[in-house]
Design brief:
The protein has about 180 residues and is mainly β. The protein has no helices and 12 strands. It is about 0% helix and about 65% strand.
């Protein structure tokens, strides 16, 4: 399978999607949209987001996410101002009994790195096992889980639940993104 993506590949930006990544082929490309966020003790907010999943022929998808403030000015934030960035890699591994296992590694510029392990079934991805590594100055995030999937109209939707600051696991972020490029 070929996909548009950044990195090494054939002329014109076309690269071969590694065979192990076929269960994630539906993610390849750039997605853009809006989401909502909140957490206990934090006023709800709206954000814009762009996510890119890029193939370069190796057995991992590159992943980059950028978010920006999409609400009225508040607490020193202005519309369009940067919020969060994540970068990492998504891999597929064979699991027990023929299951498809997803391994995701993410790094955040505020001192947190995460490893997720989960499953893919069709166009639904459940990342339900998580390890968080924090620097001494990072936020007190202890665990999170993520759900991604294609929804009506072919959009990519996701939800992230988080356990942080001594508070129980609860909804933190969710968004619906439309594909803007392959």
């Amino acid at each position: 399978m070929s996909a548009q993506g950044e990195g090494r590949g054939r002329p014109g930006g076309v690269v071969d999607l590694h065979a192990s990544l076929l269960p994630l082929a539906f993610l390849v490309g750039t997605w853009r949209g809006e989401g909502v966020g909140g957490y206990e003790g934090l006023e709800g907010f709206h954000y814009g987001q762009e996510i890119t999943f890029a193939a370069d022929g190796r057995p991992a998808l590159g992943y980059v996410s950028h978010t920006w403030w999409a609400d009225e000015p508040r607490d020193g934030r202005e519309p369009g101002g940067p919020l969060a960035t994540e970068t990492g890699f998504w891999r597929v591994q064979p699991g027990e009994d023929g299951a498809t296992v997803i391994e995701v590694t993410l790094a955040h510029p505020f001192g947190i790195a995460e490893i997720y392990v989960g499953s893919v079934a069709g166009t639904r991805i459940d990342l339900d096992h998580n390890v968080v590594i924090r620097t001494a100055t990072a936020r007190d995030v202890t665990r999170s889980v993520r759900l991604y999937g294609l929804v009506e109209g072919g959009d990519l939707a996701y939800a992230i639940d988080m356990e942080a600051g001594g508070k129980p696991m609860q909804s933190h972020l969710s968004a619906r993104l439309r594909r803007v490029s392959d």
